[in-house]
């Protein structure tokens, strides 16, 4: 009966563990490795539970088994998996100790003797599981929401707080097992305090996250306001250019009509030599692409960056305006920003349509010896937490359009290759 009871308790514990992990992650596709990754930890816990090891041994074995199960059976980053395992175990040992204290008070028994009956074992296991789930769900929910783009100082706090909690609970448990202390109601207060501190630590990042999102939103608004201003200026210049050309054509037409071809040729030569370098007009038969490129050319001109363009687009282009805006603005902004810090100060943009795909190749000069890594790029921005959102936005937009994106380094230049369908996909249309 004792063996069946021990295995039953492990099953209850493993079910709770699976529920939590399934909430935080996605199951890996079934394979022999993922199956063994779940089966072996379960069998180890069943086997070791029959020996009724001390708390320190149980701590080490449980964390190893939980981590193995998580790594081999679920998909996500290693750091996130470790953090969730730690959070779960903190909730588990707090719940277990709190359950024993409550049961000791209810049944008027000592802390060390409360689990001497099968009924109390099952009751404690079920109560611990329920309390663990109640504690773990909100803490993991907060963690999942806030875990992106946190500075290292916050990560240290996130890791240390649960570990210190585990240490405190283990020490209290060891003292209670050897003492004659019976006023367990008093111990509820420090345990509630430990739970509150852990929850508060994770919830502390709510304000940080809100401020971060607000800052990014402000930057985005400023960015689009600047782009809108540049677009208006560019439209004015285009209107002026069209007006000037119309006047020049009228003059040349009149001169040729009157037979004064020499004066007409002289006037054409003057027009040819006239400096229209401040006016940029790009026409790709796609209004969104035209507007973005003209704006970016203006930005490059203001920074004295040599911006070269090579384009050959077909007529049947129906790409998502929002996605193409995200892609081009961010890629070209990053290219101009990097080129501005280099000696060469060059940016080139190649756009071609072929076999139903639009291919963008953006090349920019960089600081000598600097290699660009999109997954681990450094920044000199004042708020480093805002760094990387442009690249993430581009990757998401390309993915949403069922396209591909590649980065490469070549002779102090960064090259970005993007290929996307030139027609809207079903998901974009919806």
Main pleated-sheet profile: 5 strands, mixed
Alpha carbon gyration radius: 33 Å
Number of helices: 13
Which percent range fits the helix content?
Answer: 55-70%
Question: In one word, what is the shape?
Answer: elongated
Any idea how many domains? 3
The largest beta-sheet arranges its strands as: 3-4-5-7-6
Number of E-type strands: 7
**Alpha-beta classification:** alpha+beta
Q: Whole-number average pLDDT?
A: 78
**Beta-strand percent range:** 5-15%
Low-confidence stretches: 382-387
Write down the oligomeric state: single chain
What is the H/E order? Answer: HEHHEHHHHHHHEHEEHEEH
- Amino- and carboxy-terminal Cα gap: 59 Å
GO molecular function: identical protein binding; kinase activity
Keywords: Kinase, Membrane, Transferase, Transmembrane, Transmembrane helix
Protein name: Sensor histidine kinase
Pfam family, one: HATPase_c_5
């Amino acid at each position: 009966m004792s063996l069946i009871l021990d295995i039953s308790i492990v099953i209850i514990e493993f079910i709770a563990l699976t529920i939590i992990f399934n909430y935080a992650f996605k199951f890996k596709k079934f394979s022999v490795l993922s199956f063994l990754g779940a089966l072996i930890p379960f069998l180890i816990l069943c086997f070791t539970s029959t020996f009724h090891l001390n708390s320190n041994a149980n701590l080490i074995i449980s964390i190893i088994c939980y981590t193995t199960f998580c790594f081999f059976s679920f998909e996500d980053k290693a750091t996130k998996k470790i953090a969730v395992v730690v959070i779960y175990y903190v909730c588990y040992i707090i719940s277990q100790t709190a359950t024993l204290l409550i049961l000791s008070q209810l049944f008027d028994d000592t802390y060390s003797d409360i689990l001497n009956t099968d009924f109390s074992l099952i009751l404690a296991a079920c109560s611990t599981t329920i309390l663990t789930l109640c504690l773990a769900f909100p803490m993991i929910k907060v963690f999942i929401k806030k875990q992106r783009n946190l500075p290292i100082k916050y990560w240290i706090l996130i890791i240390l707080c649960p570990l210190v909690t585990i240490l405190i609970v283990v020490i209290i448990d060891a003292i209670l097992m050897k003492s004659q202390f019976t006023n367990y109601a008093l111990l509820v207060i420090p345990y509630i305090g430990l739970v509150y501190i852990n929850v508060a630590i994770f919830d502390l990042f709510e304000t940080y996250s809100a401020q971060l999102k607000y800052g990014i939103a402000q930057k985005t608004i400023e960015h689009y306001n600047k782009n809108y201003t540049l677009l208006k200026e560019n439209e004015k210049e285009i209107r002026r250019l069209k007006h000037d050309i119309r006047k020049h054509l009228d003059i040349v037409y009149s001169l040729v009509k009157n037979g004064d071809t020499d004066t007409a040729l002289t006037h054409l030569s003057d027009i040819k030599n006239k400096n229209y370098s401040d006016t940029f007009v790009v026409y790709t038969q796609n209004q969104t692409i035209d507007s973005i490129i003209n704006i970016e050319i203006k930005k490059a001109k203001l920074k004295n960056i040599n911006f070269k363009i090579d384009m050959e687009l077909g007529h049947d282009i129906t790409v998502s305006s929002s996605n193409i805006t995200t892609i081009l603005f961010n890629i070209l902004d990053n290219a101009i920003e990097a080129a501005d810090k280099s000696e060469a100060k060059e940016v080139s943009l190649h756009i071609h349509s072929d076999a139903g795909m639009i291919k963008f190749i953006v090349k920019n000069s960089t600081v000598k010896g600097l290699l660009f890594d999109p997954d681990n790029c450094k920044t000199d921005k004042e708020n480093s937490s805002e760094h990387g959102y442009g690249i993430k936005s581009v990757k998401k937009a390309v993915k949403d359009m069922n396209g591909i994106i590649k980065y490469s380094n070549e002779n102090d230049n960064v090259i970005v290759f993007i290929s996307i369908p030139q027609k809207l996909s079903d998901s974009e249309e919806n």
